[in-house]
Design a protein that fits this description.
By secondary structure, this protein is an alpha/beta fold. The chain folds into three domains: 195 residues, Class I glutamine amidotransferase (GATase) domain (Rossmann fold, 3-Layer(aba) Sandwich); 59 residues, no CATH class; 55 residues, Homeodomain-like (Arc Repressor Mutant, subunit A, Orthogonal Bundle), CATH 1.10.10. It has a six-stranded mixed β-sheet, sandwiched between helices. A two-stranded antiparallel sheet has the order 3-4. The protein starts with 14 loop residues before the first strand and ends in a 5-residue tail after the last helix.
């Protein structure tokens, strides 16, 4: 599991969360810069809190190579020291096509070795878009759940078959590995760290100051729009199914009814689910239910019984079992993580 405490300070002084941002040749520049801007906004908003309740975010660039420069932008980086960091954000890998991406990953062996070392020492790793491919190359994501940009889903499945890919999710947390989707995912990852260390209230306020919609639940609409423009069918069917299922997470449903709503046959529906989501409808509903439960735990003070009913589970005990299987966190751990009342 990710670490739960930031760096200790003398009593009465703000706590400090030290976040490293990995830089390397060919990294996506926005992925290296955006987190610093998010933390700056969070620090400014934190000034209204008493000193003893503040968390100061300190971000820095780290690298395994000297003098990293990307398209004329130079980074003042330092060698990573896991003892001085609370998390590491990994920017995406710039590429013009999938062959170009594979070649770029081949040239990042030192970074992959570093990620293995840091992960072995328990440092949380945050990544998104093509950075999911970089982390997956290390083998660290074998058997783990993660997401990436929807248009990289087929590449990830082919290159990393042991990865449990959730291509329609915007943010996936699996122990100390937190992944997000799209080039702008670094807003989501930095905001996740703000919420992790300073609470969901500050995360939401920071998102509002950045005019960033932190309530987005899926990247399926973006995939559906792109598929519609290119006359693709799979993502369109998937988006229809997602919307229909999301309205019925607390109800019983059948594949027959879902196929009828999507205006396709049951056989085609199942095939589309496998192509686009990598799982069948029943497994996909479990993912949606877990994500809704996580959202309700983070943003409300509902009892576990109420949350279970709203997510289609019989009782809190069933919800607890599902979390252990699907989210690898107990409800109590979620409550503690997000600073909510028991």
């Amino acid at each position: 599991m990710p670490r739960t405490a930031v760096s200790a300070t003398p009593q009465g002084e703000p706590l400090r969360a030290r976040i490293g941002v990995l830089v390397f040749p060919g990294c996506v520049r926005s992925g290296a810069v955006v987190p610093h801007d998010v933390f700056d906004v969070a620090n400014q908003l934190m000034q209204s809190r008493p000193a003893a309740r503040r968390v100061v975010f300190e971000s820095c660039w780290v690298a395994v190579r000297p003098a990293v420069t990307v398209d004329g932008l130079s980074f003042a980086s330092a060698a990573p020291d896991v003892r001085s960091l609370d998390a590491l954000i990994v920017p995406g890998v710039a590429h013009a096509g999938l062959a170009d991406l594979s070649a770029a990953l081949d040239g990042l062996a030192p970074e992959q070795a570093l990620l293995r070392t840091l992960a072995a020492q328990g440092l949380p790793l945050l990544f998104g878009c093509s950075a999911t491919c970089l982390v997956a190359r290390t083998g660290l994501l074998d058997g783990r759940r993660a997401t990436t940009s929807w248009w990289l889903a087929a590449y990830c499945r082919a290159q990393f078959p042991a990865l449990q890919l959730l291509p329609h999710e915007l943010l996936v947390e699996d122990d100390a590995f937190i992944s997000s989707a799209g080039v702008t995912s670094y807003f989501d990852l930095a905001l996740w760290l703000v919420g992790r260390h300073a609470g969901s209230d500050l995360r939401q306020l920071t998102a509002r100051m950045l005019v960033h919609d932190s309530r987005r639940e899926s990247q399926a609409p973006y995939a559906a729009a792109a598929a519609a423009a290119s006359e693709g069918e799979g993502p369109v069917v998937m988006e229809r199914a997602r919307r229909w299922l999301a309205r019925r997470l607390d109800q019983d449903w059948t594949v027959q009814a879902l196929a009828r709503h999507c205006r396709t046959s049951e056989r085609t529906l199942l095939r589309r689910f496998k192509e686009v989501a990598g799982v069948g409808p029943a497994q996909y509903v479990q993912q949606l239910r877990v994500e809704r439960a996580k959202s309700l735990l983070e943003t409300t003070l509902l009892s576990l019984e109420d949350i279970a009913q709203r997510c289609g589970y019989q009782d809190a005990s069933t919800l607890h079992k599902v979390f252990k299987q699907w989210a690898r966190l107990t409800p109590r751990e979620y409550r503690a993580r997000f600073g909510l009342r028991a």
